[in-house]
Specification:
Layout lengths: L1 H17 L4 H21 L3 H30 L4 H30 L1 H22 L3
Helix pairs in contact: 1-3, 2-3, 2-5, 3-4, 4-5
């Protein structure tokens, strides 16, 4: 609930707050926030730090998704904007559907802390791919 609640507010404000900042830097920074938030949740010694980690993830995810639609429009050009946005929103939809189930499955097998740590590892990979592939 913390992730979704904070994410809902952040999604509405993210593009306004980002302003004219370098989009690549912001996207990589949001991925770094996702890594840190998942690690904090995985290692949290108490409920409040777990809650803070989950709230940080809400900021990272919602701002990343909101910004990615605008970025794809710049990357693919006017002729492919619809298709590019369709691919991004398909990815967001699939992640929204698959992530809770995958997280529950991994949690059942390895424990919830391991699921959070694994998610942090996947976010590191995504962040590195962004660093290598996105233009400034």
């Amino acid at each position: 609930t913390a992730t979704a609640s904070v994410g809902a507010v952040t999604a509405m404000l993210s593009n306004v707050l980002i302003g004219r900042l370098n989009r690549k830097t912001v996207l990589v920074g949001l991925s770094a926030l996702a890594v840190g938030s998942n690690l904090l949740a995985a290692l949290a010694p108490n409920f409040w730090l777990l809650l803070l980690g989950r709230a940080g993830l809400g900021i990272a995810l919602s701002a990343f998704w909101a910004l990615s639609v605008a970025v794809v429009a710049r990357l693919v050009g006017a002729n492919a904007t619809g298709r590019g946005m369709g691919i991004v929103t398909l990815g967001v939809s699939l992640a929204t559907i698959a992530a809770p189930s995958a997280g529950a499955l991994i949690s059942d097998w390895l424990g919830w802390r391991s699921a959070m740590a694994l998610t942090a590892g996947l976010a590191v990979i995504a962040m590195l791919l962004q660093l290598l592939s996105l233009p400034t």
